[in-house]
Amino acid sequence: MERENTAAKVPTSVFSASVRPRHCDAQGMLHASRYYEYFEDAFLAWLDDHIGGYEALRATGVDMVVVVSGCEHRRGAALGERLAIEVRPVAAGRTSLSMTFTFRGGAGDVLATGHTTYVAVSADGPVTLPERLRALTEGLPSA
Predict the structure, then answer these.
(1) CA 60/CA 48 separation, integer angstroms
(2) Cα 81 to chain centroid, rounded
């Protein structure tokens, strides 16, 4: 029996942004701590593209909170540089969703790779991922 290729079905988005002065250090490079803000902006854009946005998620009574994140830097992004950030889910559990972020610079070179794992929560604590997220991530490894 041939195994189905789920990678082709993974809902991916590309978020574009320029490096702003307020995000830079004194050398005019994106400060290492600011990558996480770009992760969040890219994730919100992914929600826009695939489930109708953050508001649609919140309308289900669920929010997503960060439980793990990290970033590996290859080359710094310079002030004004145009970034293309590929966002894709890589694992999903009953309550969790793990995403990867690939930062590319203007020349298409990889500047950094990041990862974030979110947990679905309501006012009462962790909850099952909303149906639309479960459907999008069906077939991914468990988070």
Answers:
(1) 15
(2) 20
Ramachandran area for residue 80 (φ above 0: left; ψ -120 to 50: alpha; else beta): left
- Tokens in use for 114? 């990041």
CA distance 75 to 98: 24
**How far is the CA of 39 from the CAs of 15, 86, 125, in angstroms?**
10, 10, 24
Q: Is the pLDDT of residue 1 over 50?
A: no
The 8-class DSSP code of residue 25 comes to -
| Domain-wise residue ranges, the chain | 11-136
What's the pLDDT score for residue 143?
Answer: 77
Backbone angles phi, psi at 64, to 5 degrees: -115, 125
What size, in residues, is the chain?
A: 143
Q: What is the pLDDT of residue 9?
A: 80
CA 143-6-40 angle, to 5 degrees, is 50
pLDDT digits (tens, 9 = 90+) for 63-105: 999 999 999 999 999 999 999 999 999 999 999 999 999 999 9
- CATH for the stretch 11-136: 3.10.129.10
Q: What is the mean pLDDT of the chain?
A: 93
